Amino acid sequence: MEFPSKLIENAVGELSRLPGIGRKTALRLALHLLKAEMDTTASLAEALAKMRFEITYCKTCHSISDAEECGICANKLRDHSLVCVVSDVRDVIAIENTGQYKGVYHVLGGVISPIEGIGPSDLHIDSLVERAAGEESEVREVILAISPTMEGDTTAFYLSRRLRDLPNVHISTIARGIPMGGELEYADEITLGRSIVDRLRQAR
């Protein structure tokens, strides 16, 4: 693809690094920004820079946050005895959009995947166990809401083994309204919401 400007070429190259953005789409975006008001492009650049450099992670659940503790963990009206374990921040957003879950979360930061070199020590698993096992812990139920893929099931099985001996902590999994091999973020809100409501408690 030939470009009339090296600056446009550089912009297209950077935009096309984004997932799902090919070079043609990147070119359309670059030309749109070029035609837009200067303030529009400047505001976009500022928002992206602030997002990258100022966003932090919640000290409790590891979700993205604007402060040391995210809004969900800081909300006293949420049920802190109920912890929903997810692999990714996108799953938090998907479940929150159902409007049916009132507990809190724990974001693992991925799933166990030996092929990709991701083991238990690479995930936020130890902090989950500490959170549930602490003397002052409020946790009474841990919901394993992990996508039902091979890696997800491996991760859920490992977590069950780590948590099963904790006194007064029940382990449950979301109901299989989510198809095998499916991703939570792509499930429709009704199906995902009912999966949370109809979760299955595991035998201890």
Automatic annotation (TrEMBL):
<dbReference type="InterPro" id="IPR006171">
    <property type="entry name" value="TOPRIM_dom"/>
</dbReference>
<dbReference type="Pfam" id="PF02132">
    <property type="entry name" value="RecR_ZnF"/>
</dbReference>
<dbReference type="Pfam" id="PF21175">
    <property type="entry name" value="RecR_C"/>
</dbReference>
<comment type="function">
    <text>May play a role in DNA repair. It seems to be involved in an RecBC-independent recombinational process of DNA repair. It may act with RecF and RecO.</text>
</comment>
<feature type="zinc finger region" description="C4-type">
    <location>
        <begin position="58"/>
        <end position="73"/>
    </location>
</feature>
<dbReference type="InterPro" id="IPR015967">
    <property type="entry name" value="Rcmb_RecR_Znf"/>
</dbReference>
<keyword id="KW-0234">DNA repair</keyword>
<dbReference type="InterPro" id="IPR000093">
    <property type="entry name" value="DNA_Rcmb_RecR"/>
</dbReference>
<feature type="domain" description="Toprim">
    <location>
        <begin position="81"/>
        <end position="179"/>
    </location>
</feature>
<keyword id="KW-0479">Metal-binding</keyword>
<dbReference type="InterPro" id="IPR034137">
    <property type="entry name" value="TOPRIM_RecR"/>
</dbReference>
<keyword id="KW-0863">Zinc-finger</keyword>
<comment type="similarity">
    <text>Belongs to the RecR family.</text>
</comment>
<keyword id="KW-0233">DNA recombination</keyword>
<dbReference type="Pfam" id="PF21176">
    <property type="entry name" value="RecR_HhH"/>
</dbReference>
<protein>
    <recommendedName>
        <fullName>Recombination protein RecR</fullName>
    </recommendedName>
</protein>
<keyword id="KW-0862">Zinc</keyword>
<dbReference type="InterPro" id="IPR023627">
    <property type="entry name" value="Rcmb_RecR"/>
</dbReference>
<dbReference type="Pfam" id="PF13662">
    <property type="entry name" value="Toprim_4"/>
</dbReference>
<keyword id="KW-0227">DNA damage</keyword>
